[in-house]
Amino acid sequence: MGQHVRVAVIGSGFGGLGAAVRLRREGITDFVVLERAGSVGGAWRDNSYPGCACDVPSHLYSFSFAPNPDWPRTFSGQRHIRAYLEHVADTFGLRPHLRFHHEVLLMRWDNDALRWEIETTGGTTLTADVVVSASGPLSDPKVPEIPGLAEFPGKVFHSARWDHGYDLRGKRVAVVGTGASAIQIVPAIQPEVSRLTLFQRTAPWVLPRADRAITAAERRLHRALPVTAALRRQLLWSVRELQVQAFTKRPKELGLVETLAKANIARSVKDPALRARLTPSYRIGCKRILLSSSYYPALARPNVQVVDGGLAEVRGSTLVGADGTEVEADAIVFGTGFHVTDMPIAERVIGADGITLAEVWKGGVTSLRGATAAGFPNWMTIVGPNTGLGNSSMVLMIESHLNYLADYLRQLDGLGGRDAGRGRVALVPRAAAVRGWNERVQRRMERTVWNTGGCTSWYLDESGHNTTLWPGTTAEFRRATREVNLAEYEVIRAAGSARGTEREKEAVQ
Q: Could you tell me the domains of the chain?
């Protein structure tokens, strides 16, 4: 039998590293971080495409407990964010806990031993009292099934698996998709390719990117007086909290923002026909509002062509758009997003009833407070269902879940989870609590711009339910996850334990 640990953390992006730091701060050192790749970074390791950068200000897109006074730009690029995460791993002594090249193949709950059995590509079976899944929703790229794609003679890759060994210079390149990655890739590669064709299924709303270099004087001030960086972060957070009402309760208030976005198109695109095709027909905010000051100028260049309706078919080296347009290409880059509402890791988690999380979620992804799932004891996900944000930093949501994780472990300890004399113990959310939480979330979702704005987005699952975003402020979510409400959980004890019963439903309310 392999190693047994108190906690196994899956993934080493912001969520996984944040969980590891919090565990150490809670005095828990008996844990491992399982990472399928060879370094930390998560999405900021995997997404190394040209132009990759964050659309949340740097001082807000970082841990509150690990401020960085030396961010080089107001919106930092992938290289600097990845370096920041490496710095966090070093500063907080996380290296001894990291297990690289340990992709999780299967996690199975043992009802008798009350622990998780975990199989990884590392070769040994690991067991853990608690599993924290921090693989993230932007982990597994999604490439659409397009007739003839397998026979395309050129190069094909997804933006999150960029092939840096392939030289795009002088090539005819097709970019499929118009999401956050595509609008950064297009202006980055446009000057060096001979021909760039953008297959646009839906035009995005794009606002100017107010990016600039952070001066040396500012960085010196933040190092000398950390409170100045904290105040900067507080201001950035406050502005975004004030914006939430427009997204969640009063979408009509976004009309002014829409006017600004149309002006942004008009400034850069003089051709009225192209301008009309680049102007969305849905309410701004229904899809994520993108930030770029170079996207529209790039589309107006003579070596760029926009094809409406997306990519429909591939015939050899000829790409056929949904509108019938045919173009020749040497390479296809897919900026088509990720498996968000159908995360592949859910197929590898087998709960107390012997069925996978994917099967439980087949009718819709649900959880309790975005963290725990009915039928899966001592299992928690960082930024799970309905925790995404449309306008602010996901690091804020991650830190809220770290608070929940810390209290979850305290509750287990209080119930005797680490006391061998009292028997092993686990917590599992009641199905009624999960159902009630999600019904409340979905009722609040009905008025949001994401549900009423007239678009189809990756926020929605196959049934049209928004199982991705949080319909409130980050402060509300912080309050909702400050502590574990034991009334929402069942307490499970091992058979023959000092308390006597196999599954308790005692009055812990």
A: 4-140+339-504 (3.50.50.60), 149-210+236-334 (3.50.50.60)
